[in-house]
């Protein structure tokens, strides 16, 4: 069964490349529509809409799969691949689009349509069930749907297959970080964990610690909303091409570069979290808005990978938003937005407060040192889960063990434990490690930006963020999928990805704050 | 080219009726998705999203058309139609679904897919252009896109055809009111216009008039928002299955019965308009929420026609919301919501203020007498426009002439003239008369409800609206498309549609208020 909404009229001659791009753009229309429905489900949809929404999403997923597996797409691809002139420049737009669409087409063809539909329907329902279960800290409620999601994902991994030296997790991670394997992640995470835990011990034993005054402030949520919108606009989010709303789990959904939907969340005592989460999503949003509009609906108009995406969000959240330069601009702004409530806070208080290191239960509230330990715990669990060596019912226990071992914490309940993140409910197994990859990419890319741009921190201190945004636009965003993540890193920074920039950055910033 | 997202797996045997319903439900998934995208465009979408949104809508329209014109759907229909057992009860669910899907299938097959796509794309763009042009009262800006819309609609009418004694307008009106023709509308409108103009003259010459104090009040929009949400919930809108937002032009979009999106709008001095517009849309919303969920995605789960839909919105807005009984409940509520600002208003003031009759420029702000004159002016214009006897550039002149003739007004600018309504920009020519049909149905149906329900107005006075809602649920909403509009009217009221109930209702209510 083929599906075609907007291919050219019968009789009109098109080249294989034109045919290919036409189908890619059609798939993107359906994909972006599904993305909007997902955004709506998280932000706007009344609870009664759930059951039918899951069917709408299953229908769109099925049509999307239908376009990507269309035999004509395969014929167009073959036609393009045999056209030497078209493929001459391997990083030119045509060759890149052909390369990435070939990857997508081959991958999608391994998946039965019924599985694609079932995954879309089930994850839509499971996300809702997760939100309810999280609210009530009731893992038992979530368990049946999570079991169904995991079973579907294990089936998906089987369909996709993995190399002889790989494992099922690899098949799923490919959706988020092409070429990423569990073994490669393990090779990075092992030594990084030791270095991070070493730094954590060092800081905790330090002779001083930053003031917590900022984090203890109760600030009205309405004022926080105005404040974080102001910061998002200031660092470069274009509100004429996007929105900022609230949701249980903050996210950024790039339906396309001219309509980017971000969300954040607020708590009375956590202005830093609302700000951090907003700057994080704004980093994603600026990436999406910086994708080349002329390539919309094709790989050359899409982001490289989640690791690179996360490098953008984490850079704005951390390298920018937790820098002393940023706070020397932002400190007086706090007074403008919150008045007397913040007047006793010094610059040291707010800069320090944004950089408190403290093992905690919640990943998205974590400092930069412990953040990656949260990720590692999740990776360990989902890896054995998808291999079949851990049952869904065993997740809470495994989670709590991991938090004891990695962070030295006794998890008090599942709400603050294995129910805290939306990812598994949405079928996103293989996703978490991209957060840590993003931290590594962020540090390495930011070092290069800081070397390329004169007086970058002085600009931040004046509230000027345009030069960094322009640098990212040029080197990352406008490139679409021209390079895969590892190659992009080498192209831009001249070096393969390394954990050294992240560790140097963390040590350089945090040791002085902790009197080390 | 066929399209199928969710038909049953190959090899599974289905009856023609099951096959038919499967395709109908698939079309409905796509239609409801498009409906959500339209809602989002009017309420949430940032301006940058427009161009791509129009392409998403064109893609969905094309796929929707693809399902409805699928040759398999035709085969299933033929199979059903020859199954005498299935069709035995002509108002049973199966026969109704077959009847209405046959109508849709035959109609859609007359339309080229390219036209369907082009209409969806163009009207999405035109709605945005209309909103901008309206804001600036700049008809010249809107003209090129409106010309394109009209040309596409004229082409659409040509494709669909009309009976020898009919005209192009009939072909388009069929989308909104099956069986409705310009000649039939004219036959109703002619005498009705005379009676309404007669009543208007009588009232204007009356010895007294109601207080305008309610309409002159400046009330904070935030408080108005809370107030109208309260009323919407009180009269029966279920917010767990729907939303109320703001938009330039209020509307109700039933993406499906468990997710109904309504909008309203606010002005500082027009609490009556915000209330009326909200009760109006709530009437639509209650209809949509009352459709039988088990028939979702099939004609038996859908509303009869826009005329019947409008009867529901107008009944709650007028027969309920402009009744003395309603205001005797609502009057103290005003004080609760608006405090001191309203304390000087008596029940007579608010009941009278809600029933001021006064020719004005804006249809949606019009009283119940002049409202239909607004509709008649639009019908006259769109009828000749679609026949080709009026150019788009001549609309402002024709509009202003009609307002002079029907309402005795000199239209000061196009914002308050031919740019006030969204309908033509969205391609909805043939739609306006359903508003007046709705007024006629509302009066006739309400008479019957009031006869059937003991103490209906006493209930209103106590803030109880459940009995009316239940009566409408039973007699109208739960019936889906079992009957066409005219038959439904006869079934429920025992009589064919007549203008007498509306005129009796208006005369009975308004003469006393105007000392006649």
Task: Please state the CA-atom Rg of chain A, rounded to the nearest Å.
Answer: 23 Å
In quaternary terms, these chains amount to homodimer
The CATH class name of the largest domain in chain A reads: Mainly Alpha
Low-confidence stretches of chain A: 1-11
For the residues shown, what is the average pLDDT of chain A?
Answer: 95
**In one word, what is the shape of chain A?**
globular
Helix and strand run of chain A: HHHHHHHHHHHEEEHHHHHHHHHHH
Q: Provide a count of the helices of chain A.
A: 22
Strand order of the largest sheet of chain A: 1-3-2
Q: Ends of chain A: how far apart?
A: 66 Å
Strand coverage percent of chain A: under 5%
Query: Level of helix content of chain A?
Result: 55-70%
How would you characterize the overall build of this protein?
The structure is a homodimer of 516-residue chains. In chain A, 62% of the residues lie in helices and 3% in strands. The model of chain A is unreliable at 1-11 (pLDDT under 50). Chain A is globular. Chain A folds into two domains: 16-161, no CATH class; 182-513, Neurolysin, domain 3 (Orthogonal Bundle), CATH 1.10.1370. In chain A, a hairpin with a 2-residue loop joins strand 2 (252-256) and strand 3. The longest helix of chain A has 28 residues, at 16-43. With 516 residues, chain A is mainly alpha-helical. At the A-B interface, helix 1 and helix 2 of A face helix 1 and helix 2 of B.
């Amino acid at each position: 069964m083929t599906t075609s909404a907007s291919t050219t009229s019968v009789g009109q001659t098109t080249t294989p490349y034109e045919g290919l791009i036409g189908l890619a753009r059609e798939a993107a229309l359906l994909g972006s529509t599904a993305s909007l429905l997902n955004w709506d489900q998280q932000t706007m949809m009344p609870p009664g809409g759930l059951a039918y929404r899951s069917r709408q999403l299953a229908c769109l997923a099925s049509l999307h799969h239908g376009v990507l597996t269309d035999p004509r797409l395969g014929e167009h691809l073959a036609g393009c691949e045999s056209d030497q002139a078209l493929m001459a420049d391997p990083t030119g737009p045509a060759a890149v689009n052909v390369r990435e669409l070939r990857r997508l087409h081959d991958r999608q063809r391994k998946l039965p349509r019924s599985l694609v539909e079932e995954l879309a329907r089930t994850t839509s329902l499971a996300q809702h069930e997760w939100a309810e279960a999280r609210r009530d800290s009731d893992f038992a409620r979530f368990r049946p749907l999570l079991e169904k999601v995991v079973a579907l994902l294990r089936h998906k991994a089987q369909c996709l297959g993995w190399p002889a030296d790989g494992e099922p997790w690899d098949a799923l991670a490919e959706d988020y970080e092409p070429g990423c394997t569990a073994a490669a992640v393990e090779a990075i995470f092992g030594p990084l964990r030791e270095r991070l835990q070493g730094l954590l011990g060092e800081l905790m034993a330090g002779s001083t610690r930053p003031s917590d005054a900022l984090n203890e402030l109760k600030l009205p949520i309405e004022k926080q909303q105005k404040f974080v919108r102001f910061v998002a606009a200031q660092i470069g989010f274009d509100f004429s091409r996007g929105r900022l709303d609230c949701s249980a789990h903050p996210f950024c959904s790039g339906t396309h570069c001219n309509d980017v939907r971000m969300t954040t969340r607020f708590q009375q005592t956590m202005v830093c979290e609302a700000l951090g989460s907003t700057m994080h999503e704004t980093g994603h949003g600026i990436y999406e808005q910086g994708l080349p509009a002329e390539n919309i609906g094709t790989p050359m108009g899409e982001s490289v990978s989640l690791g690179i995406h996360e490098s953008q969000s984490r850079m704005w959240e951390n390298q920018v938003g937790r820098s002393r330069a940023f706070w020397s601009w932002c400190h007086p702004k706090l007074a403008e937005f919150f008045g007397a409530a913040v007047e006793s806070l010094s610059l040291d208080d707010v800069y320090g407060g944004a950089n408190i290191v403290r093992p905690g239960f919640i990943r998205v509230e974590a400092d930069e040192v412990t953040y990656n330990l949260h990720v590692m715990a999740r990776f360990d669990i989902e890896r054995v889960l998808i291999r079949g060596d851990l049952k869904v019912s065993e997740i809470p226990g495994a989670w709590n063990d991991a938090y004891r071992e990695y962070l030295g914490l006794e998890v008090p309940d599942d709400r603050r434990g294995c129910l805290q993140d939306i990812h598994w409910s949405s079928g996103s197994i293989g996703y978490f490690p991209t957060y840590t990859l993003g931290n590594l990419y962020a540090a390495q890319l930011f070092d290069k930006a800081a070397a390329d741009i004169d007086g970058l921190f002085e600009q931040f201190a004046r509230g000027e963020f345009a030069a960094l945004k322009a640098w990212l636009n040029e080197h990352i965003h406008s490139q679409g999928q021209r390079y895969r993540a590892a190659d992009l890193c080498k192209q831009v920074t001249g070096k393969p990805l390394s954990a050294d920039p992240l560790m140097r950055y963390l040590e350089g910033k945090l040791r002085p704050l902790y009197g080390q």
